[in-house]
């Protein structure tokens, strides 16, 4: 059984990715990054998901991206609400966090070397309406090439493999993948602007994409909401 590092945010996508890695026979090491996000409820969600999945180890690393700002998730910027699909797809939204996935994958790469892991799994998705540049196949391919020359394992011709199993799936397809693997989505959290109790707003882009996907497969979202 080989070791694999899974970037675990506590959201729907990363929980599904963890289940996929587990079902592919890996010994799973989950890595959560507390980057100063306003939706810190997802850190608690990551802890719940990791426990439920029975990971070998779960680490949380703090890298405070609030020092950079520039995002509604790390700065005093309004989180867009009640936007339709056309508005979501029109431009890269202010919820994009500069360099976030680059930083997270770099940390996962270091963790993989420490744990002698041959694989890293990340739940990025290029099909939904986020439009984030660091969720595209081109980004994953570029990071894979960098990893091959930036690490001891790569220099020794044992480069870590980067897996993004959800990258071409719709949100409904992701849900079906997870449900088939027993993922409890009631443990997850996806909202960009939850209340103090960690309940999702139901109105931000992430909530609307998530709620729409559950509706399309004929299920109610089991996560707690303020307005749903």
What would you note in describing this structure?
The protein has a single domain (3-216), classed as HUPs (Rossmann fold, 3-Layer(aba) Sandwich), CATH 3.40.50. The chain has a five-stranded parallel β-sheet, with helices on both faces. Helix 1 (12-23) runs parallel beside helix 2 (41-53) and helix 1 packs across helix 7. Helices cover 38% and strands 11% of the residues. It has eight helices and five strands, in the order E-H-E-H-E-H-H-E-H-H-E-H-H. The model has no long low-confidence stretch (mean pLDDT 94). Strand 1, helix 1 and strand 2 form a beta-alpha-beta unit. By secondary structure, it is α/β, with parallel strands linked by helices. The longest helix has 15 residues, at 100-114.
Return Rg in Å: 17 Å
Low-confidence stretches: none
Largest sheet: 5 strands, parallel
Instruction: Give the strand order, joined by hyphens, for the main sheet.
Output: 3-2-1-4-5
Q: Helical proportion?
A: 25-40%
Indicate the mean pLDDT: 94
* Coarse shape: globular
- The rounded distance between the terminal residues' Cα atoms is 42 Å
In DSSP terms, counting alpha (H) and pi (I) runs of 4 or more, how many helices? 8
- The CATH class is identified as Alpha Beta
The overall strand count is 5
Helix-strand topology string? EHEHEHHEHHEHH
Key features of this structure:
228 residues; five-stranded parallel sheet; 5 strands; 38% helix
């Amino acid at each position: 059984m080989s070791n694999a590092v899974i970037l675990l945010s506590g959201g729907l996508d990363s929980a599904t990715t963890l289940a996929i890695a587990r079902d592919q026979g890996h010994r799973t090491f989950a890595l959560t990054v507390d980057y100063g996000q306003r939706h810190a409820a997802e850190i608690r969600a990551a802890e719940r998901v990791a426990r439920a999945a029975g990971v070998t180890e779960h680490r949380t690393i703090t890298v405070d991206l609030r020092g950079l700002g520039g995002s509604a998730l790390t700065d005093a910027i309004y989180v867009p609400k009640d936007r339709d699909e056309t508005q979501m797809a029109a431009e890269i939204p202010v919820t994009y966090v500069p360099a976030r996935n680059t930083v997270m994958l770099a940390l996962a790469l270091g963790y993989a070397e420490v744990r002698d892991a041959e694989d890293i799994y990340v739940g990025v998705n290029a099909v939904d309406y986020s439009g984030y540049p660091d969720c595209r196949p081109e980004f994953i391919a570029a990071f894979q090439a960098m990893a091959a020359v930036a690490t001891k394992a790569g220099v020794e011709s044992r480069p870590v493999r980067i897996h993004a199993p959800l990258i071409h799936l719709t949100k409904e397809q992701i849900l079906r993948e997870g449900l088939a693997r027993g993922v409890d989505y009631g443990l997850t959290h996806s909202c960009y602007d939850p209340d103090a109790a960690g309940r999702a707003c139901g109105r931000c882009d992430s909530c609307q994409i998530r709620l729409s996907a559950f509706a399309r497969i004929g299920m109610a979202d089991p996560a707690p909401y303020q307005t749903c």
